[in-house]
Amino acid sequence: MAQHPLAQYLDSIPDFPKPGILFSDISPLLKTHFTETIDAMSDLFTQKEWDEIDCLAGIESRGFIFAAALAYKHNKGFIKVRKPGKLPNVYASVEYGLEYGTDKLEMQKGDGSKIVLFDDLIATGGSMGAAAKLCEEVGYDVYAMACLIDLASLNSFTYNDMTVRSVIQFND
Q1: Given 25, 91, 134, 166, which residue has the most CB atoms within 10 angstroms?
Q2: What is the DSSP secondary structure assignment for residue 128, as one 8-state letter?
Q3: b/e string for 73-101 if b means 16 or more Cβ within 10 A?
Q4: Residue 58's beta-bridge partner residues?
Q5: For residues 45 and 129, what is the distance between their CA atoms, to the nearest angstrom?
Q6: d(CA 103, CA 61)
């Protein structure tokens, strides 16, 4: 299967943020092809699915970019999944493991809205899984999950029998 044309605008940075990690920098892509990137992420869902979705949730911080732009494009609400100490009225939090450490996410109380959870990249699935669990814990219905890049060779992540939809997949 051919790689998505937008993949050519990513920059691979070895040993960032620590030795042994190959970081996919989305900055060049967003600088030169932002509209095309948002359109490609929008195309991960059918119009019927967009009609069923109430809000889009973004995982701090790069997930905010995609969820906010898509919320605007589809006239949906935007929900923040934040790191500790950046959100008032925190209702719940969850700690999770990363491929290079641990982190924590927090959210305000939900209202039963049907949401799609967005991030820039899925590696092991740690942050996506934690965010999905947190969204449900605070009172949202997780309809789907999506990201720009899936490092598929590092994961076989699913959450409640849902896989993460992605524009760009790296299998090795």
Answers
A1: 134
A2: H
A3: eeebebbbbbeeeebeeeebbbebeeeee
A4: 80, 118
A5: 20
A6: 13
User: Tokens 């799609």 label which residue?
Assistant: 116
Q: Given CA atoms 63, 64, 68, 71 in this order, what sign does their dihedral have?
A: positive
Q: Is pLDDT of 79 > 90?
A: yes
Q: Which of 156, 154, 118 is nearest to 135 (CA)?
A: 118
- Catalytic, out of 60, 82, 99, 165: 99
Give me the catalytic one of 36, 60, 62, 95.
62
φ, ψ of residue 111 in degrees (nearest 5): -135, 20
Q: What is the pLDDT of residues 93-132, one digit of tens each?
A: 999 987 667 889 999 999 999 999 999 999 889 899 999 9
Specify the DSSP class assigned to residue 100.
T
d(CA 67, CA 76): 10
Q: Is 62 a catalytic residue?
A: yes
Q: What integer best gives the mean pLDDT of the chain?
A: 94
**What are the structural domains, with CATH classification, of the chain?**
45-169 (3.40.50.2020)
| Cα–Cα distance, 94 to 83 (Å, whole number) | 10
**In the predicted model, is pLDDT for residue 91 greater than 80?**
yes
